[in-house]
Amino acid sequence: MPSGVREMTKQAVILGGGTGGTLVANRLRRLFTDTELAITVVDQDDRHVYQPGLLFVPFGLTHPEDIVRPRARQLHDGISFVERAIDHVDIESNEVHLVDGRVLGYDVLVVASGAVLVPEETEGLTGPGWMERVFTFYTPEGAAALGAAFATFDGGRVVVNVVDMPIKCPVAPLELCFLADWYFRERGIRDRVDLVYVTPLDGAFTKPVASARLGQMLADKGIELITEFNTGQVDGETNRLVSFDGREVPFDLAVVVPLHGGASYVGRSPGLGDELNFVPTDEHTLQSKAAPNVFVIGDAANVPASKAGSVTHFEGETLVHNVHRFLSGEPLVDGFDGHANCFIETGFHKALLIDFNYDTEPLTGHFPSAVGLPLLKESHLNHLGKLMFQWLYWHSLLPGRDIPGISSTMPTAGKAHHPSLAEQE
Amino acid sequence: MSMTTIAATAVELDAEGFFVHPEQWTDDMAPEIARAEGIDALTDAHWTVIRFMRAQYFEKGTGPTVRVLGKTSGVSVKELYQLFPKGPAKIAAKIAGIPKPRGCI
């Protein structure tokens, strides 16, 4: 290749080889030729976890090895993968510095490094009892350890606690409660198990209509709901959660969703992140506020959308088009509307589906149009949808394809227009 | 929305009692709002938080959450709850005359 052409090649560096990084790399690879754009994905390891699968591990419904695949193999030909931790990004000189001293220059940077768990920020959480009586299911190791503890649990008080928002997949801890109710019923010991859901929110969920529906489901299943509880300490010696305002919740087994933050290198990169290491990002264009040639996808961004794979998938289309427009010197488009679409597993081979965006809270009706999956209502069809999604994740979502019939922007055709609670049934 | 008189000045509050227009707020309104929230005397530590909340609001367009306050204000989350027992982010925002901090989703 003539050197003149080589010099025309722009460099895209993508930080993170998870859901967002992978689908952006694959979409960009289709949009640009090799001579137009070189694409490099950086990640500290080669383990791509299908995170929605973690929910099923504690109940023996799936196993950690079944939800982990190599990151590099999800990337199409013509994409470089660098397995190395990031030290910091220099947004002034457009360079990514790796821990081994290597430096990657970029014309455009995509931050896709997700959210990390910071259990050590909560007093006592990783102290006595951690991984013995106090668990998290947000890691493969934690989910497996919780599964072992559930298997031998023969009665007592199981407390599921969210320390503070934001967390990945805000419905997951509720799903864990629903599945635990089912699991202990199947084992014939539900009457010996108290299930308690402890949240910092003022209801079961963030959005009013869904919060009322999910709150009712907790009540129907005999799961106690404790709200506005800001966990200050997890005491694994006396087995209590203690809130900052002095309230106490005793447990025999605690399932805690720890505080989340952005990747630690963000904190070491001057001007890139906020106090929690998330990257301030325009919620519609997905361009960072740190620098015009830095874009952000998925959990790493501070946008007011759920930290969820569906959100990341819907962001992908807008993000790659805006990267293209940026490299062509064209104005960016306000393409992303905050669309999220989540199956909520409720046990007994059923699930419910919620679909919402920045402006519209989850409503009743059907998805994606009047003929479709029922919204905010338990059905076996939604459960099958949730199971099918794992196949779509590896074979359609990560390769960066649109899922047929599912648009990136939120559909309104099948939704109830007047979401009064009375209309729900 | 409703108009209320605080420190002999008419101000507009939202349904939950937060200021709609933070520029209507003055220092001498803080003790009166604090008393209504069960805080009888504002100490220097309270004022540190109040000033910090307002600075953050005017810089970022929203007041910080408790966790961000604990990381950035120089006052720990534990102390914040001692100062504002009914919830530091909400109560301090109310006393500081800024809208309710946007929570996370």
How would you characterize this protein structure?
The complex is a heterodimer of chains A (425) and B (105). Chain A is α/β, with parallel strands linked by helices and 425 residues long. Chain A has helices at residues 3-8, 19-31, 140-152, 172-186, 208-220, 264-267, 309-327, 380-397; strands at 10-15, 37-43, 47-49, 68-70, 79-83, 86-90, 95-98, 103-105, 108-111, 115-117, 134-135, 156-162, 193-198, 223-226, 231-235, 240-243, 248-250, 253-257, 260-262, 294-296, 340-347, 350-356, 365-367, 373-375. In chain A, a hairpin with a 4-residue loop joins strand 15 and strand 16. Chain A starts with a helix and ends in a 28-residue tail after the last helix. The longest helix of chain B is centred in the middle third of the chain and has 17 residues, at 44-60. Chain B is mostly helical. Chain B has helices at residues 30-36, 44-60, 66-72, 77-83, 88-95; strands at residues 2-6, 9-13. The interface between A and B is medium-sized, with 18 and 18 residues.
Please state roughly what percent of the residues of chain A sit in beta strands, choosing from under 5%, 5-15%, 15-25%, 25-35%, 35-45% or over 45%: 15-25%
- Give the tally of β-strands of chain A: 24
Structural class of chain B: mainly alpha
The sequence of SSEs of chain B as H and E is: EEHHHHH
Given the structure, what is the number of helices of chain B?
5
Largest interface, C-beta within 8 A: A-B, 18 and 18 residues
Instruction: Strand order, main sheet of chain B: write it out.
Output: 1-2
Enumerate the spans of chain A where pLDDT stays under 50 for 5 or more consecutive residues.
Answer: 1-6, 418-425
